[in-house]
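User: For a teaching handout, I'd like to show students what a predicted protein-ligand complex looks like in token form. I'll give you the sequence and the SMILES for zinc ion. Please answer with just the structure.
Assistant: Understood, here is the input followed by the structure.
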Amino acid sequence: MKMWQCSVSGCGEQPRLFALVVSPDGNRSERAVCQNHIERIGLPYVQAKDSGPNLDRSSFDWRFCAVVWAPEPQEFTLVLRNTRDASTIVIPTGYVEATWIYNIVNKVPYEQPTTHEFIANTIRSLAGTPVEAVVEGYDGKAQSFQCYLAIQIASALIKVKCRISDAVAITLVTDTPIRIIMPDISQLPFRR
Ligand SMILES: [Zn+2]
């Protein structure tokens, strides 16, 4: 993201957050904002309001919403948005994972299949269909999500464990949804 000035017209301050955002209708935009204009990034991520812990979102479909980079301290986050009430979930990730996802969303062309295209192609070559990625838990100690990719092969639904960043990348490559079926979904940093 080559934006070294706050993108708010006439500001010119040094940005504090950079984001690649995909709107619910699929439009991509890149934004950079300074400390004073964080709310202009247009993400619920930075307009956090508690949307209530008791709402059962386990049947909702989630989609990629944004990848956000804060340079100081260096932090990368993925934001997912559900298709029902538009609440979001913020997922900390690493530089490499954020870069892969940024490139997938921006459709950066590669001569050869990328790793996630390769995985999707392999599944299809074996007569499988990627159905969805499922988040079924969160390990607070390890600070990691427990996820699997659900693959339909003939009448069998096969579950393959994966990292949440790979789950997001695969669902972007295969245009499939993410589902979050954790028993205590309220422990996640939901935002609205
Ligand atoms: Zn600004």
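For the handout, you might add this sentence: The first strand starts at residue 17 and ends at 22.
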